[in-house]
Amino acid sequence: MKQTNLKYSCLIAVLYFGMNVNGQVTPQDTLPKEQKIEEVVMIGYGSQKKENVTGSIGLVSAKDLADKPNSNPLSSVQGKLAGVNITNVGTPGGSPRVDIRGVGSLTGNTVFIVDGMITTDISYLNPQDIESMSVLKDPSSLAIFGAQAANGAVLIKTKTGKGKPVFSLNSYIGFKKVTNIPKMVNSNQYIELYNEKLINDNGSSAGSLSRANFPADTNWYDEIFRTSIINANDFSAMGSLGKLNYYGSVGYLKDEGNLAAGSGINSGSGFGRFNAKLNLSYKVTDNITIGNNFSFSKMRTDISQNPLLTAFIAPPIFSPMNSATGNYQYFNGYNIANPRAQLDQFRSQKMRKDC
User: How big is the CA angle at 252 (ends 85 and 165), to the nearest 5 degrees?
Assistant: First the structure.
């Protein structure tokens, strides 16, 4: 760069993309040495610098996942990657559907490769344990992993220890509420519309309803929905001791779900997960490294029949419970199940362990 002699000392600031801002009092304008930012991505058969990769790869970092209170890591990626459509199933702990650049197969699933292990479900993973997530969005996934990756592939790398010891404690609590619930008619409106229909259909009011015979006024969505709590607590330790690198973590997540079943085997739609993870690596020589990657998870999923449709069509003139017998109220003359009874009586619990 051409040097310019200045009569007086002045402050010169140079700013342009890819280099630092440098300001100094000098009669000569000097530029700092260029500093390059390198980003490494996983490509299925190793890792490369991002600028050297020719395929289409989306990258999600640990920072993008850590601050999202979701039971499944995929839910935290929603809306962050172009060409990747993530559809949540709505149930706590459920595995979202992932479509990469459209649906490549009607029956196939997106393949997940977690630390080199192939799986089709990552609901057992704690989002706090993930270091990076690379999404292969072009035919390279099919070339590397075969027909099972026809709908794309997601490469996940979990955290490993390095540097000085770091201890982390993360805890959050949140509340979930169902929104955009359809506004339903009350009992007075239902009886008025029902009697009007009788007259229009039959020309008489024979068989009409009255509030004296049906004093109840039930909003069935209020009966099956509740405001629920989601809570997660995680503790991790990472670092190195000489040639030994370590990362260990334990975590527990509880998602109550928004379906409000009565007392019994489960709450209707809850989900709980306990995680433990230990990553160890020891550098024997410059060319030899041995290690261990251990993970354990235990999950509990509450299952119940979905009462949303019956809650939509159930008449508000009936009560959930029969006050005379103390049992569930059945709708005489209507071929409709009691949503409250459907939710309370038809439920089960599924346990799953992964290690």
Answer: 95
